Structures are given as C-alpha cells and as structure tokens.
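[job 0412] stage=fold_complex status=start
inputs:
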Amino acid sequence: MSSWTPTAPRPAPASTVGFVAWTRANLFANKLDTALTLLAFTLVVYVVEAIFGWAIIDASFTGDDRTACLKEVQGACWPFIEAKFGQFIYGRYPDAERWRVDLVFLSGLIGLIPMLMPNVGFKRANMIYLLGFYPIFAFIMLNGGMLGLATVDTTDWGGLLVTLVVAITGIVASLPLGILLALGRRSDLPIVRALCIGFIEIFRGVPLITVLFMASVMLPLFLPDGVNFDKLVRCLIGVALFSSAYMAEVVRGGLQAIPKGQYEAAAALGLGYWKTTRLIILPQALKLVIPGIVNTFIGLFKDTTLVLIVGLFDLLGIVQLHFTDASWATPETHITGYVFAGAVFWLFCFAMSRYSIFMENHLSTDRTSS
Amino acid sequence: MSDPVIRINKMNKWFGNFHVLRDIDLNVASGEKIVICGPSGSGKSTLIRCINRLETHQEGEIEVEGVTLDGSLKNLEEIRSNVGMVFQQFNLFPHMTVLENCTLSPIWVQQKSQAEAEKLARELLERVRIPDQAGKYPGQLSGGQQQRVAIARALCMNPRIMLFDEPTSALDPEMIKEVLDVLVELANEGMTMLCVTHEMGFARQVADRVIFMDEGEIVEENAPEAFFSNPENERTQLFLSQVLTH
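[job 0412] stage=fold_complex status=done
writing structure:
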C-alpha cells in the first residue's frame, strides 16, 4: 500500500504580491485604467490645492475686527471664528457660569471614553454613572437654580451646547424606545402591535419640522393654563420620539434577519420571551444593524440644526446669527462660518462612523482565529 | 412496559388546513431509545417538536413525565427543563463562545452559579470530546464539532429525555461518525432518546424500537431486527428498499 504525503505549500510568485504588484493591478492595469488614475490624481491635486490656498495661504489668522479680513486676495477669515468661539460653543450662556458647561462636558467624557473602549472594565458601574447619575448632574449644573448655582434659562443656552444636549438626549432615548417599538411591532398581541405600528407610521410620515412645530407651538395650546414645559424639553421629546420611530424600523430589520432556529433553540433550553430577546435575539440583531443604527444617529445629529425653526440656537443657528454682526461683515465671513460649522458637524459624525466600523470588527465572531 | 415517561394519546395536528399528524399514539418507557424514520414530509420532525411544544398540537394529549402539555406556562417550563433537543442545523448561538452556549441555560434557567455552570459545561464538553474548544465561537468549528457542542448544551440542562431532529443530516460524511459515536455513548448510558434519523446502521445498533411514519401516521413500529429484516407493511418495505440499496 502506498502512502500519500501532502505537498508542502509554496509562497505566491513575487510578481503578484507587494506594492508594485498592487499598483499595477489596481491603478495601471490597462490604458483606460492608467488614464483614469492620472485624471483622478490631477483632480485631487487641484482640489487640495484650492482648499489649502483658501484655508491657509490666503487666510487671515489674527485680527480684532473685519479689517483683518479685507486683503486683496482673501481666504478664510479665521479671526471671526476666534472672536466668536465662546458664543459658538456656549451661546448666550453667561461668561461667569461657563465653567459649569465645561464641567458637564468633561464629566461626560470621563464616563463616555472608557464606556466606548471594550477592554476597559467596570461597564456596569459606568452605565449607572452615565445613565443614572450623569443626566441629573448635567441638568442641575446646566440649569442651576439649586445648590447655590444661579439659574441659567434654557433660552440662553446655545451653540454646540444645544446641539449636543439635543443630539445626545435623542440618541440615548431613541435606541431603547426604538427597540421596544420594534419588539412591539413584531408582538403576537394585536393591541400592542397596532399601537406600535401607529406610532411608527405617524412619526415616520411627518417631517421633523412639523414635529418640532407641534411640540413648541401647538402643544402649549392644548395644555391647561399654568402648565408649561420648557421649550427645549419639548424639542427634546419631539426629537427623541421622531428618531425612535426610525430606530424601530432599523432594529426590526435586524430582528427579521435572526433565523427561526435561534428562537427554537432558546425555547428548547427553557428560556422565556424576555430572556430569549435579551440574551439571544437582541445581541445578534443589534450587531447586524450597527451601520443602520449609526446612520440614524448621524442623521439625528445633523437634524438638530432644525431646532432653529422654533427659536433655539444650535451651533449652525448661532453661527448664522453672528453673520449679522456689522463689525465682522466681510465677503469671507459667511463661508468661513459655514466651513467651521460644517467641520464641527463632520468631526462628530465621522467619529461616530469610525467607531461603528470599529465595533463591527470587534463584535465579529466569524473570524477564523480567536 | 413500566410507567411511560412520554405518553401520546390520539394526538392530531394541522398546519392551517393541512393535517400533518393523524391520531398519533405513542408511549415511551424510561431509558428507551426510539428511532423515527420515514420519507420527508411524513411528520416525523413535527412529532418530536410537539413533545417540547415547539409546535402545538390541536387534539389529543401529550404527557411528559406525568405533566400534561396544555397551554399552561408552568407545565411547559417543567417539561422543557426535562427535555433536551438537538437540531439538524445545530442552532448554536453564534455570538457566544462554546462555553457560554453551554452555560446559558444552567445560569439563566436553573439559576446555577457561574462557576458551577462552567464546571458542568466543561465536564460535558469533555464527554462529547471537545474540551479544548470551549473558548471558541461556533463559527470557528466544523459541523461535527458544532453538533457535539449542541449535544453538550442540551445535556447541560441535565434532561431526562433527549430529542434529536436529524442530528447528522447537515454533516459531511466524515463528520457523521463522530456525532453518532457520541449518540451511541449517550444511549449506552441509559438516556431516554427519540431520534429522527436516516442512519439505519445507528438505528440497528442502539434502537429499542424503530417507528416508520408516512403521511402523518405511524405506519409501523417494531424492534430493529424485525423492522429491518421483516417489515410487515408494504409501504415500509418500499421505503427500506430505497434507503438500504445504497
């Protein structure tokens, strides 16, 4: 009987791996490829040069008023941003009290950063800190009126502060609400299902502006005299309900992707509905729809700019408000302000996007080695 | 026969208007091994799925260890904790490691401590001969290994009855044996087993009784020797001639 020895593996030919091979295969495979590569390269150089020229070379960096930004060839007017930076971050929050906002930002980061890092422990304690302690602390600090802190009316809040308060509240509220709505929509109980479908379809079928208008203009008309919620609070509720309807549909997509066998295996092991949902179904379903969830978060973050419509000044709103300042009226003020606001929004959204990709990879269990 | 652990009496089931199970009568004694075979669509999987109520029957009675399967959640809980099940498609939880798959039910249903559950799980993984895979995810294992994890996971509930729904049908030929070896071992230890399978060699080796189903009915049941060498029913003969000629 002859015995068989497997052939030893050999490395791939040198011409198919490495940098040169990659460039040849991906950039210069044939004449058309080469032409497209060169064209794209020229375009990138042109755009980068234009941006670089405007933002750095022709830009003004110092100055106290509009005269700093009236050169012959004028790029960005950065002194405008510098002069108004405080306003853009805090709005009309009193100067003397701004440390309270800083403290709220800082204490939020202290909880959030370790929460986002999967390898750092104390997740349960951190969760209690972030969802239990922090909102109360942030409310007391920002709003004041107790513990010897002066009251700062929400009409004086503005800028990035309002953007973050609306966005974070919306994000934190919409995920659990959306999950409950998605579960309700798939429930066997007809009344629960009907209510969830009704809620989702109404909020999804209405523009956010309408919801915000309803919350800030119509709602007070229906409330008895003397009962009045803060306008910001009404907006927060409106935004949270609106985005939870979207979130519900995203989560439902994930729930539908879970094979029936998973439910059956859980049932056969004696797990009831809530344990099955919490331990088996949701961890898998949510992982599947991370891109969709983050997409909704990003949409929500940018939609916060709509609170301008009911008279709240978020980051973009307050930037626009300061265009009217005569001492900074230059041809480049508008564009500089918009670029700044855009860059801040982009930074937050891009961070969320990168984090979602990181989490997708981290949670992937089909890697071939552990 | 001593007092049966499973008693099925005149059980009927419909999917919509389709009559899948018709007047099923079946008693299973403690420690008995039953192999159920039959053509696809004959209702054999549905029958064993009715025993732990993954499917609900509409007429007749099912009693498992004296507990009646009706709508009662309390009864259902009791039955499910006594009955383990292994599926054709394994149905492991892909987001959990092998060890977590096994400790899930002991921890969350039987309220065992983490340490106790892990000890039990490691013992059972040893028994199905994959103790070194405990930290891996199901997606990193071969089909045969996954099915053995699924068996260990079911055994972790310490069930008195095990249901197997075509446990080797989704496996490559080289992996069928490793799963069957585990099943044979389990059978030799005296577990009460109901197994839907087309592995006739396995049926011959371990079964106390072979049941042949077609069109939602039990056509014939007999001891394996008699069943294979001398089937009484014409339909059984035809089926056997088709499975055994290859």
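[job 0412] summary: DSSP finds 14 helices and no strands in chain A.
[job 0412] exit 0
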